[in-house]
Design brief:
By secondary structure, the chain is mainly α. It contains five helices and no strands.
């Protein structure tokens, strides 16, 4: 086996991942090659240093704050989604009931009925979106304390 291939196997040798044949070849090479022995020693030192390193654990209150913020954001998003969907359904149903007589009138073309329902649906979605936007900006108004 060539020198470069042995250098690539040193890490696996140190970790005990080589089969018997490869291990014998690496050991034989290490006996005759000071460069590879030096590399093996450096890897052993590095492994020893790495085994002594401990990562700092964050305080428990930091984890608590993190999880609270994650749950609050998820709850709020889900809440807004459900509120929006509910408002859209209710407003659309109310609009449909107001126009129900016209929708069931056979003299009005189907395409016109479809257009009216699409317009009603779009209006409802825009109204809900506008309402959410107004609530959002009102909560974050930076100059609400300033007198005009």
């Amino acid at each position: 086996m060539d020198h470069q291939k042995i250098k690539e196997l040193i890490s696996s040798y140190l970790d005990g991942e080589l089969d018997r044949e490869q291990e014998k070849i690496v050991i034989s090479h290490l006996k005759s090659c000071p460069e590879c022995r030096r590399e093996l020693e450096e890897m052993k030192k590095l492994e020893e240093i790495m085994s002594r390193i401990e990562l700092k654990k964050p305080p428990q209150e930091m984890w608590q704050t993190y999880w609270n913020s994650v749950y609050n954001r998820l709850e709020r998003r889900i809440g807004w989604i459900l509120l929006s969907v509910g408002a859209i359904i209710l407003l659309f149903f109310g609009g449909y009931k107001m126009m129900e007589g016209m929708i069931h009138d056979p003299s009005i073309p189907f395409l016109l009925k479809l257009g009216i329902l699409a317009g009603l649906g779009g209006t409802v979605v825009l109204l809900v979106s506008l309402g959410r936007e107004q609530l959002f900006t009102r909560k974050r108004e930076r100059y609400k304390e300033v007198e005009k």
